[in-house]
Design brief:
The complex is a heterodimer of chains A (1042) and B (572).
Chain A: H1 2-11, E1 21-28, E2 39-42, E3 48-50, E4 56-61, E5 66-70, E6 77-80, E7 89-90, H2 96-100, E8 101-104, E9 107-110, E10 118-122, H3 123-126, E11 145-149, E12 158-162, E13 175-178, E14 181-184, E15 203-209, H4 212-215, E16 226-231, E17 237-250, H5 261-275, H6 295-299, E18 303-315, E19 319-331, E20 337-353, E21 356-371, H7 372-375, H8 378-384, H9 417-423, E22 425-444, E23 447-466, E24 469-471, E25 474-476, E26 480-503, E27 506-529, E28 543-569, E29 573-584, E30 593-604, E31 616-630, E32 641-646, E33 649-654, E34 665-678, E35 683-695, E36 698-700, E37 719-721, E38 724-740, E39 744-761, E40 768-773, E41 779-784, E42 791-794, E43 797-800, H10 804-808, E44 812-813, E45 833-835, E46 843-844, E47 850-853, E48 859-869, E49 872-882, E50 885-888, H11 889-894, E51 916-918, E52 924-926, E53 953-955, E54 958-969, H12 972-975, E55 983-997, E56 1023-1024, E57 1033-1041
Parallel strand pairs in A: 1-7, 13-16, 44-46, 50-56
Antiparallel strand pairs in A: 1-4, 2-3, 2-5, 5-6, 8-9, 10-15, 11-12, 13-14, 15-16, 17-18, 17-57, 18-19, 19-20, 20-21, 21-22, 22-23, 23-26, 24-25, 26-27, 27-28, 28-29, 29-30, 30-31, 31-34, 32-33, 34-35, 35-38, 36-37, 38-39, 39-48, 40-41, 41-42, 42-47, 43-45, 48-49, 49-54, 50-53, 51-52, 54-55, 55-57
Helix pairs in contact in A: 8-9
Chain B: H1 2-16, H2 42-49, H3 58-72, E1 76-78, H4 83-86, H5 95-121, H6 128-153, H7 176-193, H8 206-220, H9 232-248, E2 271-275, H10 289-293, E3 309-311, H11 313-318, H12 345-349, E4 356-365, E5 371-377, H13 400-404, E6 419-423, H14 424-436, E7 441-442, H15 445-457, E8 467-468, H16 469-480, H17 486-496, H18 498-507, E9 513-517, E10 526-530, H19 552-557
Antiparallel strand pairs in B: 1-3, 2-6, 4-5, 7-8, 9-10
Helix pairs in contact in B: 2-6, 3-5, 5-6, 6-7, 7-8, 8-9, 8-14, 9-14, 14-15, 14-16, 17-18
Classes of the chains: A mainly beta (1042), B mainly alpha (572).
Chain lengths: 1042, 572
């Protein structure tokens, strides 16, 4: 704030008082409507007025005065008064963001000069959907960008893949540049979202840089694409105050079909009849039982979300400011989740001297999240919790399993998920300062020197407290509290020389920059157990003898030189060359510096004199090529030691094999693009085709287990540059203005994209990488040469064995000598699963596993329709993903009828397990030959339920009505009756309302695994493990301008 | 206006050089040490070998050890899980297989790199004795890992220097004979270089290595045997080493068998090699096997997942007098009359209804469900029960409060007690078996004396008959049940008499049964009955499933492991 005051002081001009006369007039929009609230200021002073509701104004001005007429969303006009007393001004809509100048990496370019693939998402579009975090706004709007929400939990993380999978083991998330602050995107395994501290309402525009000519300027951070986020800035004129209130109702998902109490009792009785055991007394006659507890209904509930947003914008023609504040409070539809954000932002711009501009962006935010639902597998537990168990006992305590002589199974039942979600504390608080100062010296016309200093300082604190509890048999006798504090700092200092000049038909834009960056992080974790009370959640209340602490820190730096020349001849030929060199602390002496050039050209055929086809308003061919890089993480060149406790004090062991030759990863991209505009650009088509070859992939060396690099206490494999992959893809988008007359406007945008990622080499011809999730029965996804990364790996199922004869004629599991196991009831029998003999050796072994699914889509698309009629705006967004597979692990786990012996509930489909009977000749056959569920057997040589098979792989394609929004702007005539409110809007919207999919789980949009045990290296992709679903959200909003 | 240019120029000059110093891009880790700066003192070198006693073994000793060692060995069974191991169907994807394989090679990889680091970075401040001792510790651990590898998998790749093959990790399997030679050489180096008394309590000594040589030579005597005859030279070496350790190590048998597992028992005078776990919040450095084998949370700390892990019927039938044979040679009569055994190892290893363990606290509930605590009395399954378990006692140490009373602590998956890898008692039985050698029985006085040292320590009367292989084998089963030895004894037998090894396994009842005390409390006998509806009682072992297959994903990324094994070049 202090800064703001100083800046104001600098600019208060000297008041002079020449002869003045009244000037009045009307300010109108292009369609002739009077514009209320327009700022009319005498240039060089703070004297000004605002237009009334009909657009009329009156001001005292001298003949030499210049009126500055400005209004948000319109081009500011300057008019010399002269002798006139009547001065009408027709403002033009500001097309700056869309048509004239676009923000790009390290600067701005005229839209016409942009030679590469880049997509703009404006604040208008962002405001149409209910977004709690900024990346949500990109979904369906940018071609080439594949977005999946990893968890539907409030504030939850999102995967953003721009143009395919660019790394096998590293992050695939783009670089976000927020007003110059570089934040590397990441998927947090805890399910929280590193970008959720930012308020989407503050965003003016987002630029998704995809092609190499735009991304290569970010060199070593740009392989995954770059998203440039520009926040709103003040507009000169009278202060404009805007208040928006949003209320959303998030609805509970439709319950999955699990067994009712009657079905459960029947299942248990049938199981005991087959496997042995005494029927429980209360289950003797299942028909007398009721429905039992519906745990999903208990867990999920409709939940509210509220957002208050206030912004102030204004200033003189020398100083402008944008000040905003927000509070978002989102409850989760599942117990144990929630998200709360408060943020403030102040953006300032000041013209201190004719040759000096100062600017500042300051934002501060705090988020509070509840993370119990994901971290404690609450959703999975709710599906598996038996209907015979009550949520609460009669005395009010939480229910749980009971164990008696005839019922020993419930000792294995999950702990009451409702109880657990309610009593567990799992909170994450983050505070972040993000901002920067910049100053620009206008040295000569067209030549600017700009220096900017940007920083983020973020602090996080998490509290996890699992109290003691007893839910029936399930209990925890030792409470645990774990507190983690982390502090991250980042700064960059950037010096940029910019030159922009039009000489005749030649337009030159050049930029040279030096940049240094440094980051540091430090974490502290402290934990205690042995709490005697659950009332005080503080480490001091725990047992000192059961305490532990851990730390960790790191630092790194980068230094860069970069430059770009953009040349345009007669808006016809556009050439751009850029070069960046990055020096990184991640590399050893000989490899510190990486070089990232890019070259691009565009030819606007329509500007050629010979091309005279009035039908075409724009025809542009583009080609771009360039290198981007990836620098991996720090420490790979050093042989670090890990500490651990031992009988004799702290022990030290090698943590990793150092690789002093570690070097840059490089991605070479060739991009071919075309833009076509017809019918005066009422139809605009943009298409791109790209081939990206990534070499020197940074990843841990793929080594056989005998190298000792896998498992507890192992020396991690060295991080090497081995392997390469290729992404080929295309995207195209069409923007159309279907109808445009003074009353009714209908615009559409459709985009469709495709990519295919292929691993072309690894460090050995037979090597591959597996992601094995031991907590999901060793679920495996594999990245191997010639395939896309992380394909599902398992067996192929060919139905259920129907007869002994079929068993005799089929390949069966075998011992180490290759001898098939016996065909017998206690071995492999009718009702077991038949596996496909993939390698054709006549037996079933581990070698008969193959790729059974692909988590990546073939196509993804978005369709937006915007309609406006008078004050009404209707926007409809449809998103779609086609051709990706989802592994329904929930169905795998909960279709196993043997689970009844673990006291677990399951899907109703498990009731149709293979039932054996004998035919007239005494042969064993199936009573239900059509079933796909294997027989009940206490153990199975055939591994009926322990092998992952294609039976649980489902098509994850979907078409979703993502959002429908209807807004209504109150007419000026209505508002004219009072002076206070200058504009008002009301709106309703519905999100995720309608989904067409063949997928049988809650929600086909699965994303990557987040939750307990996950890390970025092992996170499964496209596996539904009880993911927090996205559900329909209904919203109401009201906005008022003062 | 001039000022403007001066200002801009000065500013630009200042800014352009930010970060330009060489140091700016040099960032060695600030949060951890690096290898080149470590191994500079005796204390650092010893701190560098300490991890070889715990974390590197974790993936084996968490669960795979007893699943391979005792489930496959037949001493212990599990009714509702790990049936692959119980029924000898362990596959190339079974968790016990993959975890064990990985863990052994983690031990080898760490041992090799630690040796490389000590040789590269240890400076003049490190004494020669400590340096050699540390290298010997690493070679001892590597040999122990290979002992387990060759026993479970047969031919496996021998790796002495992981760094040398990081860029081209193609190594063939080496023959079983080569691996045994490699093991022997490592242990011999260790015996020559380890300190003769522990440099710190629980550290390896020369006698640990000589004890391992006794075990190694006894098994090796059968490797490559023809006609079931063991190599006499190796038998003699086994006997010599056993004798040396018994007479010269200064170690002695504890007088009470039970004391071997009565916390705190770590590093007692009978112990030759233990894995050293500590109570810590670090998962990998604490004993987690306790959580897996403890029968109930009633005697644990939020864990206790071994409710269906039990002594096998076969195991219980080895205890003299327990499963009373009312009618000679009629199995249907077994266990009908209440039986009882004098063998004190039973109560120290498995729990029968009515056994009382004052060292462990048990949570019990009255009819109204109100909880209280008492000294552990293993519960009666009730007169009508058709199945129950003789759950595991060995290594089960109880609740936090029980350990706190002994100056230690415990919490879920965090236990401090050590895992025996070699006890002196084994030397006595190795001596007896090596003396017996290829004969059918022996009357050798010293062999009998040593056998009886172990036998009588269990509270049993002296054994006075001629000693046969079966006597020694059954003694080993009872002495080392739940110490992950049974399977390795069968492997040892399998080298020279595979048929007998299969016969033993195929005769072991591994099915569910029920134990009823003759009275509660303080029973004086127990009846045993097999659970009639439980049909999967017997394993079928043969040459096709005796050895473990190398894990499937290992073979697919290293297909050369399917090639015929080659002889290892020892360079001499």
């Amino acid at each position: 704030m202090l800064l703001a005051i100083i800046l104001m002081q600098v600019t208060s001009g000297l008041a002079q008082a020449p002869a003045r006369h009244p000037v009045s007039g009307k300010v109108t929009s292009p369609d002739g409507q009077g514009l209320p609230g327009v700022s009319i200021i005498i240039k060089g002073t703070t004297n000004g007025v605002a237009s009334d509701v009909e657009g009329n104004y009156t001001i005292e001005a001298a003949n030499t005065d210049v009126l500055v007429v400005s209004y948000i969303g319109f081009v500011t006009q300057e008019v010399t008064v002269g002798a006139r007393t009547q001065l009408n001004v027709a403002l033009k809509e500001d097309q700056k963001v869309l048509n004239e100048v676009v923000v790009t990496g390290y600067g701005e370019l005229r839209r016409v000069d942009v030679p590469g693939a880049q997509t703009t998402i404006s604040s208008k579009a962002i405001e149409k959907t209910v977004n709690t975090t900024i990346e949500q706004a990109i979904q369906g709007r940018a071609p080439g960008v594949y977005i999946t929400q990893n968890t539907g939990a409030p504030g939850g993380g999102i995967s953003v893949n721009i143009r395919g999978v660019n790394s096998i083991n590293g992050s695939n998330e783009p670089l976000y540049v927020i007003d110059g602050v570089q934040i590397q995107g990441s998927v947090s395994p805890s399910g929280s979202n590193p970008l959720s501290t930012l308020n989407p309402s503050d965003i003016e525009s987002m630029e998704v840089l995809q092609g190499p000519s735009a991304t290569a300027i970010y060199g070593s951070k740009a392989t995954n694409g770059v998203v440039i986020v520009t926040t709103k800035r003040g507009k000169s004129g009278e202060v404009r105050v805007n208040y928006t209130y949003l209320y959303s109702l998030q609805t509970a998902p439709k319950s999955l079909d699990v067994m009712s109490l009657q079905q459960y009792a029947q299942m248990e009785n049938e199981y005991k009849a087959i496997a042995g055991g005494t029927v429980r007394e209360e289950f003797l006659d299942p028909s007398l039982l009721g429905e039992g507890t519906n745990w999903q209904k208990e867990l999920f509930t409709d939940a509210g979300m509220q957002k208050h947003q206030v912004s102030l914008s204004g200033g003189s023609d020398k100083t402008t400011y944008y000040l905003s504040g927000e509070n978002l409070n989102q409850e989760g539809i599942a117990l144990g989740s929630g998200f709360n954000r408060s943020s403030v932002r102040l953006n300032l711009d000041n013209q201190a001297r004719k040759w000096l501009t100062l600017g500042a962006n300051l934002s501060f935010s705090q988020t509070d999240e509840k993370l119990s639902t994901n971290q404690n597998s609450i959703i999975t537990s709710a599906i598996q919790m038996g209907p015979q168990i009550a949520v609460r006992n009669l005395n009010g305590s939480y229910g749980g399993g009971t164990v008696t002589a005839t019922n020993t199974a419930e000792q294995f039942a999950p702990a009451n998920p409702i109880g657990l979600a309610n009593i567990t504390t799992n909170e994450l608080t983050r505070r972040q300062f993000l901002g920067g100062l910049n100053t620009t010296f206008h040295i000569l016309p067209g030549l600017d020197f700009r220096s900017s200093f940007n920083t983020t300082i973020s602090y996080s604190n998490s509290t996890y407290y699992l109290p003691t509890y007893q839910f029936g048999y399930q209990k925890n006798e030792n409470a645990t509290l774990s507190n983690t504090d982390g502090i991250n700092t980042f700064w960059s200092w950037n010096q940029m020389l910019q030159y922009d000049k039009q000489i005749g038909k030649h337009h030159i834009n050049a930029m040279f920059t030096h940049e240094s960056q440094e980051y540091a992080w430090k974490n502290i974790t402290a934990q205690r157990q042995g709490f005697t009370t659950n009332e005080v959640i503080d480490l001091n209340a725990g047992d000192l003898n059961q305490s532990s602490t851990a730390g960790g820190q790191g630092t790194g730096a980068m230094e860069s030189y970069l430059g770009r020349i953009n040349y345009n001849y007669a808006d016809r030929y556009i050439l751009q060359a850029s070069f960046r060199t990055d020096g990184s602390s991640n590399f050893g002496a000989g490899n510190k510096w990486g070089y990232f050039p890019a070259l691009s050209a565009a030819w606007r055929v329509t500007e050629e004199p010979f091309f005279n086809v009035p039908f075409f308003s724009d025809l542009r061919l583009r080609y771009e090529t360039g290198l981007t890089g990836n620098q991996g993480s720090s420490g790979n060149i050093y042989g670090g030691l890990t500490t651990g406790p031992s009988e004799w004090g702290t022990s030290f062991r090698p943590a990793n094999y150092p690789n002093p030759n570690f070097q840059w990863e490089e991605t070479k991209t060739n991009n071919f693009g075309i833009n076509i505009g017809v019918l005066e650009n009422r139809i605009q088509l943009e298409a791109d085709y790209y081939i990206k070859n990534t070499d020197n992939l940074i990843m841990p060396s793929a080594l056989p287990w005998y190298m000792g690099t896998t498992g507890s206490g192992s020396v991690s494999a060295p991080t090497v540059n081995a392997g390469s992959l290729r992404n080929k893809g295309w995207s195209f988008s069409v923007n159309t203005i279907n109808i445009n007359n003074s009353a009714f406007k209908w615009e559409s945008n459709f985009n469709l994209s495709h990519f295919k990622t292929t691993i072309t080499s690894l460090n050995s011809a037979t090597g591959f990488y597996d992601r094995i999730n031991w907590w999901m029965n060793n679920w495996t996804q594999r990245a191997a040469i010639g395939e896309s990364p992380w394909l599902f790996y398992g067996y192929v199922e060919e139905g259920i064995f129907q007869s002994v004869e079929e068993l005799q004629n089929s390949a069966l599991p075998a011992d180490n000598n290759g001898e098939e196991y016996a065909i017998a009831e206690n071995s492999i029998w009718v009702g077991d699963v038949k596996y496909k003999d993939i390698n054709g050796d006549g037996i079933i072994t581990g070698d008969d596993q193959t790729y059974i699914g692909n988590p990546w889509p073939k196509y993804f698309a978005g369709l937006t329709n915007s309609l406006s009629y008078k004050g009404f705006d209707l926007s409809i967004l449809i998103t779609s993903t086609i051709g990706n597979d989802v592994y329904n692990y929930l169905r795998n786990e909960n279709s196993n009828p043997n689970n009844i012996n673990l006291g677990r509930n399951m899907f109703v489909s498990a009731l149709d397990y293979a039932q054996l009977t004998t035919d007239a000749e005494g042969n064993t056959i199936l009573a239900n030959p059509g079933t796909t569920v294997a027989r009940i057997a206490s153990s199975s040589k055939n591994g009926n339920y322990s092998r992952h098979t294609n039976k649980y792989v489902e098509d994850g394609s979907f078409v979703r009505l993502k959002n429908v929004t209807l807004n209504y702007n109150l007419p000026a005539t209505l508002l004219a009756r009072q002076k206070f409110i200058k504009g008002a809007r009301v709106g309703v919207s519905a999100q995720n309302v309608w989904t067409i999919t063949g997928y049988s789980g809650y929600d086909p949009e699965v994303g990557s695994y987040v939750g307990a045990n996950a890390s970025t290296e092992n996170a499964a992709i496209g596996v539904d493990y009880g993911r927090y679903p996205l559900t329909p959200v209904y919203s109401f909003n009201i906005g008022i301008d003062f | 206006m001039k000022n403007k240019y001066i200002l801009i120029g000065a500013f630009a000059a200042l800014a352009m050089f930010t970060g330009c110093s060489d140091d700016f891009l040099e960032r060695p880790p600030t949060g951890s040490l690096v290898d080149a700066n470590f191994y500079k003192t005796d204390a650092q070198v010893l701190a560098g070998t300490a991890p070889l006693y715990s974390v590197v073994w974790k993936d084996y000793v968490d669960q795979a050890n007893f699943k391979l060692g005792d489930f496959r060995g037949g001493t212990v069974f599990r009714a509702w899980g790990d049936r692959d191991d119980v029924l000898f169907n362990t596959t190339s994807v079974t968790a016990s297989n993959t975890n064990a394989y990985r863990a052994f090679y983690v031990v080898i990889g760490q041992a090799n790199l630690i040796m490389t680091n000590i040789n590269t970075y240890a400076g003049s401040d490190v004494s020669e004795a400590v340096k050699n001792h540390a290298l010997a510790e690493a070679r001892f651990m590597r040999a122990t890992a290979y002992y387990h590898l060759v026993s479970n998998y047969g031919a496996v790749p021998i790796i002495e220097d992981n760094v040398a093959i990081l860029n081209n990790p193609v190594v063939n399997r080496h023959t079983v004979e080569s691996v045994w030679e490699f093991i022997t050489r490592d242990y011999e180096y260790a015996a020559a270089n380890l300190m003769s008394s522990a440099i710190e309590p629980g550290r390896l000594t020369k006698w640990s290595a000589e004890g391992m040589l006794a075990r190694t030579y006894l098994t090796r005597a059968g490797v490559g045997s023809t006609g079931g005859v063991r190599n006499q030279e190796y038998l003699d070496k086994a006997k010599d080493y056993a004798e040396r350790v018994i007479t010269m190590s200064g170690k002695s048998l504890l007088s009470n068998y039970e004391d071997l597992f009565l916390f705190p028992y770590d590093n007692n005078n009978e112990s030759l090699f233990e894995l050293q776990w500590v109570y810590t919040t670090d998962y990998a450095s604490a004993n987690t096997m306790v959580s897996q084998i403890t029968y109930s949370n009633d005697i644990a700390n939020g864990d206790g997942w071994g409710g269906d892990i039990s002594a096998s019927w076969w195991m219980l039938s080895l205890y003299d007098g327990l499963i009373d044979k009312g009618v000679e040679n009629d199995p249907s009569d077994d266990g009908v009359k209440p039986g009882f055994t004098l063998d004190e190892r039973l109560k120290a290893t498995f729990m029968l209804p009515g056994f009382v363990y004052p060292e462990i606290t048990q949570t019990v509930r009255n009819a109204a469900g109100v909880e209280s605590e008492q000294d552990l009395v293993f519960p009666d399954p009730g007169a009508t029960a058709a199945s129950s378990y003789a759950n595991i006692k060995k290594y089960v140490v109880g609740k936090a409060e029980d350990l706190q009373a002994k100056g230690s602590n415990a919490s879920s998956q965090r236990y401090p007690n050590n895992t025996y890898m070699l006890r002196l008692a084994e030397m006595y039985l190795i001596y007896a078996e090596a003396t017996l050698g290829n004969a059918a029985s022996t009357q050798d006085q010293k062999a009998l004396e040593y056998f009886n040292a172990v036998h009588m320590r269990a509270g049993l009367p002296a054994f006075e008959d001629a000693l046969t292989w079966d006597d020694i084998f059954e003694e080993r089963m009872k002495e080392f049940a739940m110490e992950s030895r049974a399977w390795y004894d069968l492997v040892s037998l399998h080298y020279y008499n595979p048929t007998k090894a299969y016969d033993i396994i195929n005769s072991q009842d591994r099915g569910l049964f029920v134990v009823h005390p003759n009275r509660m409390p303080n029973p004086t006998g127990w009846t045993f009955a097999k659970t009639s509806w439980f049909t999967e009682r017997m394993a079928v072992a043969n040459s096709g499933n005796f050895q473990l297959a190398i894990p499937a994903s290992e073979v697919s990324q290293a297909p050369w492991l399917a090639d015929e094994p080659v002889t290892y070049d020892f360079g001499d």
